[in-house]
C-alpha cells in the first residue's frame, strides 16, 4: 500500500509542477495587458549567412530602434559563426527545427514571454513556419517571411565561383536529389519540389512535403498552429531570380508556365495547414517589394517592424476592421 501512496503523491506533485510550468504564459498575459514591453523577436537567417553576420545584426538593431526594448534572438545551429553558416547548407532539417525549438523553449527570457514575433529571411522563413507548426512554445504572434520558399524550389541556385561551402554542398547532389543520403544532408534538397516529379517528392522529401501536410495522413497540429497566428506576412521580391520560382514566397505553384495562386490550390481549399482559416480572420498578408532576392531597404524593414512587431497591447488597439479582409492581395 505504502509504495502505491507514495507514487500517487509524487504523481500529483508532478502534475502540479507541470501545470505551473505550462501556464506562466497564461498567467503573465493579464499583467502584460498594461505592459509596453515589445514581444521578443526571433530571427532566422538565410542560406550562406550566419547568426553573427553584420547585416543580420543591423536588422536586429533596426527592430530595437523601431520598438525600443525588443529582445532580439538569432536562431543558430552552432555557437560558432562558421559552423552556423555551414549548417545553412548541411544537415537534416528535422534535427535543425528540433534544435531551434529546444533552444527557444530553454531561453530564459523567450520561454517566459506571453508570445514572440518571428522574422524569417529566405529559407529561414519556411524554417520558422516549421517552428510554429511543430513546436510553437512559446507561441508566435506574427510571422513575417521575406523571399521564402514556402512551396519549395524547382531549381537549385548557382554557387559563386569561390563559394566553397555552396559548391561542396551542391556536389552532394551527385547522389540524386531524392536519395536518403542527400535528403538527410543537403538543406536545399529538403525543400526541393518540382511538380513534374511530384510522386518522387511526396515519397522522399524530408522536410517540405511534411511541413506542407501534402501526404495523405495530415498532422492536425500543423493546421491548428498556423490558424492561431495573428499574422502571417509573406513578402515576395518582384525581381527575384535567386529563389526559383519567386512565387513560392506566396505559396503559389508554378507548373510549367502556369502560376496557380494559393487560393486555387488544395493546400488552401482543404486547409491542410490552416492558411484558409487564417485568411478568413484577416491574418494572411501577401506583400510585394521591388527588386532582387533579399534586397531590403531600412524603410521597408521599419514599416514591417512597426506594422507587425512591438508590444502586445498596441497590436490589440490598432486592430480595426479596416485591416481585415483581402485588401492586401
Ligand atoms: C532526419 O532525422 C530524423 C530525426 O533524427 C530521422 O528520423 C530521419 O530519418 C532523418 N532523415 C533522413 C532522410 O535520413
Ligand atoms: C503539372 O502540370 C502537368 C501538366 O499539365 C500535370 O500533369 C501535373 O499533374 C501538374 N502537376 C501538379 C502537381 O499539379
Ligand atoms: C528606421 O527607424 C529608425 C528608428 O525609428 C530611424 O532611426 C531610422 O531613421 C529609420 N530609417 C528609415 C530609412 O526610415
TrEMBL record:
Signal peptide (UniProt feature, chain positions): 1-22
Chaperone found in the keyword field: no
A Pfam family the protein falls into: Palm_thioest
Record-linked InterPro entries: AB_hydrolase_fold (IPR029058), Palm_thioest (IPR002472)
Broad enzyme group: hydrolase
Gene Ontology molecular function: palmitoyl-(protein) hydrolase activity
Keyword Glycoprotein: yes
Record-listed E.C. numbers: 3.1.2.22
Keywords from the UniProt entry: Disulfide bond, Glycoprotein, Hydrolase, Signal
Family, per entry: Belongs to the palmitoyl-protein thioesterase family.
Protein name: Palmitoyl-protein thioesterase 1
Amino acid at each position: 500500500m505504502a509504495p502505491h501512496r507514495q507514487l500517487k503523491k509524487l504523481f500529483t506533485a508532478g502534475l502540479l509542477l507541470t501545470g505551473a510550468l505550462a501556464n506562466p504564459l497564461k498567467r503573465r498575459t493579464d499583467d502584460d495587458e498594461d505592459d509596453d514591453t515589445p514581444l521578443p523577436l526571433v530571427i532566422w537567417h538565410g542560406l550562406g549567412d550566419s547568426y553573427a553576420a553584420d547585416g543580420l545584426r543591423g536588422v536586429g538593431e533596426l527592430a530595437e530602434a523601431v520598438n525600443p526594448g525588443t529582445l532580439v534572438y538569432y536562431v543558430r545551429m552552432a555557437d560558432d559563426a562558421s559552423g552556423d553558416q555551414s549548417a545553412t547548407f548541411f544537415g537534416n532539417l528535422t534535427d535543425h527545427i528540433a534544435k531551434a525549438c529546444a533552444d527557444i523553449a530553454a531561453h530564459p527570457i523567450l520561454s517566459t514571454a506571453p508570445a514572440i514575433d518571428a522574422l524569417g529571411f529566405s529559407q529561414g522563413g519556411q524554417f520558422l513556419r516549421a517552428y510554429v507548426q511543430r513546436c510553437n512554445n512559446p507561441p508566435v504572434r506574427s510571422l513575417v517571411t521575406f523571399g521564402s520558399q514556402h512551396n519549395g524550389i524547382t531549381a537549385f541556385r548557382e554557387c559563386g565561383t569561390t563559394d566553397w561551402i555552396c559548391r561542396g554542398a551542391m556536389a552532394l547532389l551527385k547522389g540524386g536529389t531524392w536519395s536518403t543520403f542527400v535528403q538527410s544532408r543537403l538543406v536545399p534538397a529538403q525543400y526541393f519540389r518540382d511538380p513534374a516529379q511530384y510522386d518522387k517528392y511526396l515519397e522522399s522529401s524530408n522536410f517540405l512535403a511534411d511541413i506542407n501536410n501534402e501526404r495523405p495522413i495530415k498532422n492536425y497540429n500543423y493546421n491548428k498552429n498556423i490558424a492561431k497566428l495573428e499574422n502571417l506576412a509573406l513578402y515576395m521580391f518582384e525581381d527575384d531570380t535567386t529563389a526559383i520560382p519567386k512565387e513560392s514566397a506566396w505559396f503559389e505553384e508554378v507548373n510549367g508556365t502556369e502560376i496557380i495562386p494559393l487560393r486555387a490550390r488544395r493546400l488552401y481549399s482543404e486547409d491542410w495547414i490552416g492558411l484558409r482559416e487564417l485568411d478568413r480572420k484577416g491574418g494572411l498578408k501577401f506583400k510585394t517589394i521591388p527588386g532582387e532576392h533579399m534586397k531590403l531597404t531600412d524603410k521597408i524593414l521599419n514599416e514591417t517592424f512597426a506594422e507587425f512587431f512591438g508590444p502586445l497591447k498596441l497590436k490589440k488597439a490598432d486592430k480595426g476592421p479596416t485591416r481585415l479582409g483581402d485588401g492586401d492581395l
